[in-house]
Design brief:
single chain, 3 helices, alpha+beta, 6-stranded antiparallel beta barrel, about 20% helix
């Protein structure tokens, strides 16, 4: 049911969950939105890894994203397609190179062919376990766009595509 015109009927919750999990398992880029109490909102595109339960991103330890997360761990994440929308909301946990779980760091390096732990500069791994996920394609799906609430997928989620990372 790949409709780019917005004229098809809406997907069921189970279909939206399935499609969302597939996109999280296969896509590369995600917008990461943070905010600092004194400096306001900040948004950047970052590579991401979905481990089946959480999103992992990596950024410079001195970046605005890292500073914002230390001040305010609540974040919003989104995949870049504005017609096939996926928005995630959760709290960030951060790990410096030395404390990141090895399986997450290795899966991140495998996916992107780049291992931040090998860099001279210091990097921060950020893990976001979504509390809420909204997914919709066009106006027909707006009303029932929530597919994950309070950390639980709605409807029969089926088998989630997973990477080998996770804890």
């Amino acid at each position: 049911m790949d409709d780019t015109t917005g004229t098809a009927g809406r997907r069921t919750t189970a279909e939206r969950v399935r499609d969302t999990l597939e996109r999280l398992a296969t896509e590369r880029d995600m917008w990461v939105s943070t905010a600092h109490p004194d400096h306001g909102p900040h948004q950047v595109p970052l590579w991401f890894l979905w481990d089946g339960r959480a999103v992992w991103v990596c950024t410079g330890a001195a970046s605005a994203t890292a500073r914002n997360i230390h001040a305010e761990p609540r974040v919003r994440l989104s995949l870049p397609d504005t017609f096939d929308v996926v928005l995630l909301q959760g709290e960030a946990e951060s790990y410096v190179d030395e404390t990141v779980p090895a399986d997450a760091a290795e899966s991140f390096a495998d996916k992107f062919g780049w291992d931040p732990r090998a860099e001279e500069a210091s990097y921060l791994y950020i893990r976001v376990t979504p509390r809420t996920v909204r997914a919709w394609r066009g106006e027909p799906e707006l009303r029932e766009r929530v597919v994950l609430r309070d950390g639980s997928w709605l409807g029969p989620a089926g088998t989630a595509p997973r990477s080998s990372a996770g804890r």
